[in-house]
Succinate dehydrogenase cytochrome b560 subunit, mitochondrial
Amino acid sequence: MTHTLIKLKIFILIKRLAGNRLGSQLLRQDPAKIISNYARTVTLKSTPATAAIQEGHDERNMRLGRPQSPHLTIYRPQLTAMLSISHRATGIMLAGYIVLFSAAAVYLECPLEYYIEQLKCAEIGAGNIFFVKFLLAFPLTYHFWNGIRHLLWDLGKFLTIREVYATGWTMLAIATASAVALSGMS
């Protein structure tokens, strides 16, 4: 492209951007004067690219003199964080239950009810059976009631700090009571 063609294109662009009212005033002026007033020349200097330094996060922070972040060791565990972590953990446990009981149903010779009946006949003791039932039931009740709590948050309810803590303690009490009730069933 020639230099005058570039100037003409810039002039047309300025006229379009300025609109009809200002554009008609611009047309009366010399295009070279308009370009010198509204468009400035730019000179680019090329430099060769430098190779990126291959270093890890810690090495980069040490090179830049950044302090090490103290992480979890300085913080007191908070109810909200513990409930969030345990919600994920109970979800993982429930997925493990599904895999374990599905594999047992497929690979064991007798139905699952047979093995449950064998445990009852083994005279392990009512307290031990209750404890095992509780360990199996609590992840289910905890995940269920905490999921309801999350659904209430999705509706915009109980979102202040005080309400989050109150619903957390209430959910723990209801989940524990539900697990005890399920464990007591025969």
Remarks:
- The mean pLDDT is 85.
- The first helix runs from residue 3 to 28.
- Helices lie at 3-28, 31-38, 57-64, 79-107, 112-121, 126-154, 161-184.
